[in-house]
Amino acid sequence: MLSDRDLLGRSLLIAEDDYFWADELRRGAHNAGAIVLGPFATVGAALTLVGSAAVVDGAILNIDLRGERSYAVADRLIEQAVPLLIVTGYDEAALPARYAGVRRLEKPVCVRTVLRSMLSLLPPV
Length: 125
Description:
Blueprint: E1 11-15, H1 19-31, E2 35-40, H2 43-51, E3 58-61, E4 64-65, E5 68-69, H3 71-79, E6 84-88, E7 103-106, H4 111-121
Parallel strand pairs: 1-2, 1-3, 3-6, 6-7
Antiparallel strand pairs: 4-5
């Protein structure tokens, strides 16, 4: 069970272009105590945040953001050793082999499952 303190103080980047799903993720993360970065609906906006001095403890990333693949965002996050959770409608075979080791959840999925998976990727505080 996810409590309102499980993600306390953790900064989570959310990159999702579906407004309603992004808002559900944002609210769920906020209610679990996270500092929500985003949600970002475009690759450019997400890359700007990742390239800034902002601290990102973990990221929830949709692979398709407004018709553009978010591989550049995923690659940057991996380079920075940021725990990454891919939440997408694409099956595993559709993703490049370099993401084989990245945890992936296939939509549709509930917010609690996403946040529990994200929490499991984060180092203990």
